[in-house]
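Exercise 7. Predict the structure of GTPase Obg from Peptoniphilus porci.
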Amino acid sequence: MFIDIAKIKLKAGKGGDGAVAWRREKYEPAGGPAGGDGGRGGNVIVMTDSGLHTLMDFRYKREYKAENGQKGMNKLKFGRDGEDIILKVPVGTLIRDANTKGVIYDLKENNMSVTVCKGGKGGLGNARFKTSTRQAPAFAQAGNIGEEKEVILELKLLADVGLVGFPNVGKSTLLSIVTSATPKIANYHFTTLTPNLGVVKIGEGESFVIADIPGLIEGASEGIGLGDEFLKHVERTGILIHVLDISGSEYRDPVEDFYKINEELVKYNEKLGEKKQIIFANKMDMPGAEENLKKLKEKLGEKYEIIEGSCATTKNLDKLMKLTYNSLKEVDYKNHETYDEEHVEEITREEGIKVFKDNGEYFVEGPYIDKLIRSTNFDDYDSLKYFQENLRKNKVVEKLEKLGAEDGCSVFIGGYEFEFFE
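Solution. The predicted structure, encoded as tokens:
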């Protein structure tokens, strides 16, 4: 099954907490602090794999979490870092922010890897807080929370050439002949329900990737049929081969078909109208083809290169592929333009402190405050003093005073209630 979009939740590992521990060696009954640092939380990494062609793996499992860092240990031993989690995706996958829909990463190359969620930094053990005036700190630092994001994975196939045209004009047959691809082929509409890829080999070291884009009918850009699901795969191609049933075997006018498909391309994305197109007039072996070919050349012959032939007899297919290969050399498309809005900045956890007044009460919040609270031993004088020093250093007390806080009033800090004193 072809899956080209998936919404998933990612969570990096939490950093391990620093340890509160003491030296207990023989003959040193009054040993100093010996708590080690916590390990880093595991990252969530997304990596491309050229062997994958669908996002099927993400259809059923929607949440991925990296391992937490290990807590620090006695004897100044560091905790082990959390194991990273690596998610494999096809080349051509976009990673979007689920809320803004903006593109965070565009993975266009094989073995390209990005860290989407960074693991939390490990906390410092109590040995790190020993000073000349604080010989026995009974507190340690908590590890940072890992980043957490909800993202949309969207696959846009990377192909050099795209086959476009109405259903049943011969696109799948053409693909099966010029490549080793084996799409399902039958004489009815919507035979092809998923994009198919194949490699065309012209000669030694000369080849290109071609994709059959299914589901294009009138109204596709507005959601009729399946075209709106697959039009995005046209965006990355360098050249389009527009396949027409030149015989008009289904009582359609080939020239009108050409204009209708192009209208859908432009409605979906006006930049698609700028792509180079080669017209392949298929089914020349059938009655009525010669007359329709003459009309086609009169209408479009000056603007487009037209190759007449037949998938049934393979007439001029080699000529079509060679022309396509030579035309690709003249087109600058290897950056695989996404045609999406500008990339949004990668979302990171803000390490800020928010001080505000609400209904006459004072609040101090933020990721840094949460970490400070988790790092504080409120039963230990040195730890409480360190907590207060950090609040002053980060101008929390100064901001509370500006908001009108006075001695004796309540201040809620990270869910705890404190009495304010200057």
